[in-house]
Amino acid sequence: MDAAPRRGNNNKRRRREEDSFEEFVSDEEGGGGGSGDDDDGSSLVSSARARVLSSPPLSTLLASSISPALVFELSSREKRARRATMTTHHFACQLPMFMPVGTQGSVKGLTALDLENARVQLILGNTYHLEQRPGSALIETMGGLHNFVSWKQAMLTDSGGFQMVSLSDLLEVSEHAVTFQDPATGNTTTLTPEHCMQVQNRIGADIMMALDDVVSSTANDPKRYEEATYRTTRWLKRCIAAHKRTDRQSLFGIVQGGLDLALRRKSCEELVPLNLPGYAVGGLSGGEDKANFWRCVDASLELLPENKPRYVMGVGYPVDIVVCVALGADMFDCVYPTRTARFGTAMVSSGLLKLRSRSFANDMRPIEAGCDCATCKRYTRAYLHTIVTREPVASSLVSVHNVRYMMRLMEQIREAIENNRFEAFVQQFMRKQFPRVRANDDYAVPYEKMEEDGRAPVWVREALAKAGIALKS
Ligand SMILES: [Zn+2]
């Protein structure tokens, strides 16, 4: 059930997000429980629901929605870019946001304290890995994944289907289930939508993803895409029926359709009437051409509801995130910031620093001047150059920086949308990523090549133009 759309810039009513973050953490600690698992009706979701329902005047500009375990409030918008709050059982997330990926409930190389210091709002758990070890039954007896790994902010679990398919030998996809074999052990596993929900309900994350029929975006098999798209809808209905903790956990549906825009639109049309708390765009970021990538994101976002969170799965390159925010996306996840850190690559505003390079051997500067992360406050590029890919602590130090870089990028995006200067932010961001002339002391390499005429890649300019932003050269 959706609340009536309402008017007004809620910025004044909303506390500054930094304040609310600290306040929430200290409230939780003060409350003694720490898990947010209260039943006294004073939960975050109840408060957000009351706030939305008591909000006066109506407007079609700023929409909101109330689900049993999630409240979405759009607070400002610039062109298609959106600034919103998504309140879940454990945490009120400020959108747009980036979500680091934890494997067994932990993000590689980082402690929960590191993640809190970086101001991470939500971490992903991999259902497949968690079910392998320690198993969802044990996690449930420990009071859920939040308690088990000591994480107080929000959590999201994937369906497990993607990992199972990508890590295993796929044996069969039928209407009933997906069956695969672990190449290492030879064990065969069958995953149904019902089992997927049971495992995710035991794990207890704030947001759960429906089991979808995943086909690689480079498969180039129209028939298989079509079959998978319609099966994803049927499986989603089974997931909805099997979901047993609707008061604490919210189920998101996933738009499929391969690279076929008509199929993407059809998928949206089938999913939206199911009135889920949120929607994801799946099946992308798998090596497809960028021109296809942004057109599929655009076609899906155009048809997803204005008053629900929109999550584009598997996106972690800053340029891609900025483009997707411009097209109207709110949530992103990727292993990229922590994975690339383990290979000694740091993310900065002008691109990537490959710290193994000899150019950093005598560089006494921090990774990025002005960065407020624990690594930049203390260590030089020269020191990191000496230890990257050699000492395990180097992975952690560079991960601390990269995750904080991503959080700061999202903070800047949110602030820009709030102040109606997102377009100016995009111009400035892209100029730094794709400069005509690089400063002599800037050793960063770009994420991707500029065009030969020195302008940002064609796909970036085309996607932004569709979002109403004409990139200045
Ligand atoms: Zn830093």
Automatic annotation (TrEMBL):
Gene3D superfamilies in alphabetical order: Queuine tRNA-ribosyltransferase-like
Recorded catalytic activity of this chain's protein: guanosine(34) in tRNA + queuine = queuosine(34) in tRNA + guanine
Extent of Acidic residues compositional bias: 19-41
Residues of the tRNA-guanine(15) transglycosylase-like domain: 80-433
Signal sequence residues: none
Keyword annotations: Cytoplasm, Glycosyltransferase, Metal-binding, Transferase, tRNA processing, Zinc
Binding-site positions, Zn(2+): 371, 373, 376, 401
Binding positions (substrate): 158-162, 212, 256, 283
Subunit structure of this chain's protein: Heterodimer of a catalytic subunit and an accessory subunit.
Identification of the protein by name: Queuine tRNA-ribosyltransferase catalytic subunit 1
